[in-house]
């Protein structure tokens, strides 16, 4: 993609960073000396899992996380590694449109509501698929938050009655809290229309990825407008690489894009695609430890604020970086995880606790699996 190409917003299109080779030695262990793989138990089932495996590595800038989901292939997972190498300072931040110099943030192992530099970002609570009587105890883990994202369509359209029961209980408990929904592409186009008819009663800020394909999102928006249903559509799964947001913007498939640091290849790449798309953005986590959430917080602190984003998302965008509350243990001591306090987390660096790294370490077989996976991604980045 040439540097002179133009995007939907009129800015140069971002380079497809996953295709740009890196000057790396043959093996990762020639550069990465400190690698740990841990297993984090979860409060409840989320995204079909009850525990999350993540790899942690350190570099000149501090610790970073490499945690593509286990089903992802090498090509996709290598973008996650590129992000980890960038955040740890092992490679320079890649950016063509965004301001190159990030804010300096302190390295620390604890995460109070406001760090020494005073920079925090707002976060939403996350409500997984659960029975109505679990809504209150799950959300109580987040403390006071002004925005909640509820997962729907866990079993596709078959979950609709359960979803509605859970949302009715949520609205009973939190009538004034801003609500977002996320279907993780769980509906067919026909099902999505019927679901939107039902969900419209809950006063949504936006509905995230109700259908799988970008073209389906565009068609859904047209049909919602025809029926007079005031539901804002956000794209998440449709934003996987640098070119995706441009396609979403070109087709008018969404009014908001959800961006994640690791899947897009790093903070610089994420800022580029936000700028190129011209769409309001919300930063979300990929179900990461506090180390991974720290990268998301830095990106969230650098989001552009426009009239368009304020109209949809408000003056202070609540990002999906409160997912540390979904774990029963993290890689820092209890009370020091990057979890929300009064609806915000600080922009900071996280240093894992050595005792936690040992306590949560996976067995040797799983460590070797992750080391082999990291090497495969490392080699892919060199090609």
Automatic annotation (TrEMBL):
<feature type="binding site">
    <location>
        <position position="208"/>
    </location>
    <ligand>
        <name>Mg(2+)</name>
    </ligand>
</feature>
<dbReference type="Pfam" id="PF18374">
    <property type="entry name" value="Enolase_like_N"/>
</dbReference>
<dbReference type="InterPro" id="IPR013342">
    <property type="entry name" value="Mandelate_racemase_C"/>
</dbReference>
<feature type="active site" description="Proton donor">
    <location>
        <position position="151"/>
    </location>
</feature>
<comment type="pathway">
    <text>Quinol/quinone metabolism; menaquinone biosynthesis.</text>
</comment>
<dbReference type="GO" id="GO:0000287">
    <property type="term" value="F:magnesium ion binding"/>
</dbReference>
<feature type="active site" description="Proton acceptor">
    <location>
        <position position="260"/>
    </location>
</feature>
<protein>
    <recommendedName>
        <fullName>o-succinylbenzoate synthase</fullName>
        <ecNumber>4.2.1.113</ecNumber>
    </recommendedName>
</protein>
<dbReference type="InterPro" id="IPR029065">
    <property type="entry name" value="Enolase_C-like"/>
</dbReference>
<keyword id="KW-0474">Menaquinone biosynthesis</keyword>
<keyword id="KW-0456">Lyase</keyword>
<feature type="binding site">
    <location>
        <position position="182"/>
    </location>
    <ligand>
        <name>Mg(2+)</name>
    </ligand>
</feature>
<comment type="function">
    <text>Converts 2-succinyl-6-hydroxy-2,4-cyclohexadiene-1-carboxylate (SHCHC) to 2-succinylbenzoate (OSB).</text>
</comment>
<feature type="binding site">
    <location>
        <position position="236"/>
    </location>
    <ligand>
        <name>Mg(2+)</name>
    </ligand>
</feature>
<keyword id="KW-0460">Magnesium</keyword>
<feature type="domain" description="Mandelate racemase/muconate lactonizing enzyme C-terminal">
    <location>
        <begin position="132"/>
        <end position="227"/>
    </location>
</feature>
<dbReference type="GO" id="GO:0009234">
    <property type="term" value="P:menaquinone biosynthetic process"/>
</dbReference>
<dbReference type="GO" id="GO:0043748">
    <property type="term" value="F:O-succinylbenzoate synthase activity"/>
</dbReference>
<comment type="pathway">
    <text>Quinol/quinone metabolism; 1,4-dihydroxy-2-naphthoate biosynthesis; 1,4-dihydroxy-2-naphthoate from chorismate: step 4/7.</text>
</comment>
<keyword id="KW-0479">Metal-binding</keyword>
<dbReference type="InterPro" id="IPR010196">
    <property type="entry name" value="OSB_synthase_MenC1"/>
</dbReference>
<comment type="similarity">
    <text>Belongs to the mandelate racemase/muconate lactonizing enzyme family. MenC type 1 subfamily.</text>
</comment>
<dbReference type="Pfam" id="PF13378">
    <property type="entry name" value="MR_MLE_C"/>
</dbReference>
<dbReference type="InterPro" id="IPR029017">
    <property type="entry name" value="Enolase-like_N"/>
</dbReference>
<dbReference type="InterPro" id="IPR036849">
    <property type="entry name" value="Enolase-like_C_sf"/>
</dbReference>
């Amino acid at each position: 993609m040439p540097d002179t190409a133009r995007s939907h917003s009129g800015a140069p299109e971002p380079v497809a960073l996953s295709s740009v080779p890196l000057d790396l030695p043959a093996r990762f262990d020639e550069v990465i000396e400190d690698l740990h793989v841990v297993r984090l138990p979860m409060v409840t089932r989320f995204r079909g899992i009850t525990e999350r495996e993540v790899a942690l590595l350190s570099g000149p800038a501090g610790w970073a996380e490499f945690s593509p989901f286990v089903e992802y292939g090498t090509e996709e997972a290598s973008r996650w590694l590129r992000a980890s190498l960038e955040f740890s300072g092992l490679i320079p931040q890649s950016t063509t449109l965004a301001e190159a110099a990030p804010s300096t943030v302190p390295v620390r192992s604890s995460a109070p509501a406001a760090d020494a530099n005073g920079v925090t970002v707002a976060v939403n609570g996350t409500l997984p698929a659960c029975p109505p009587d679990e809504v209150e105890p799950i959300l109580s883990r987040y403390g006071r938050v002004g925005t909640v994202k509820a997962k729907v369509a866990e079993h596709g359209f078959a979950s609709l009655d359960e979803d509605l029961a859970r949302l009715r209980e949520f609205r009973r408990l939190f009538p004034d809290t801003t609500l977002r929904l996320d279907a993780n592409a769980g509906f067919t186009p026909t099902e999505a229309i019927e679901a939107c008819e039902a969900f419209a009663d809950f006063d949504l800020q936006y509905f995230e990825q109700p259908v799988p394909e970008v073209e389906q999102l565009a068609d859904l928006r047209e049909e919602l407008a025809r029926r007079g249903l005031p539901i804002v559509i956000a794209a998440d799964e449709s934003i996987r690489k640098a070119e995706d947001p441009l396609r979403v913007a070109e087709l008018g498939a969404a009014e908001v894009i959800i961006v994640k640091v690791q899947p897009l290849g790093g903070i610089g790449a994420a800022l580029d695609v936000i700028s190129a798309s011209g769409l309001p953005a919300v930063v979300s986590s990929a179900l990461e430890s506090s180390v991974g959430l720290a990268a998301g917080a830095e990106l969230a602190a650098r989001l552009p604020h426009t009239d368009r984003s304020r109209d949809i998302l408000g003056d202070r965008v609540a990002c999906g970086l409160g997912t540390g509350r979904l774990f029963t243990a993290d890689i820092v001591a209890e009370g020091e995880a990057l979890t929300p306090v009064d609806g915000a987390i600080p922009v900071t660096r996280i240093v894992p606790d050595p005792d936690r790294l040992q306590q949560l370490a996976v067995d040797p077989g799983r460590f070797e699996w992750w080391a082999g996976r990291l090497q495969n991604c490392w080699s892919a980045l060199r090609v």
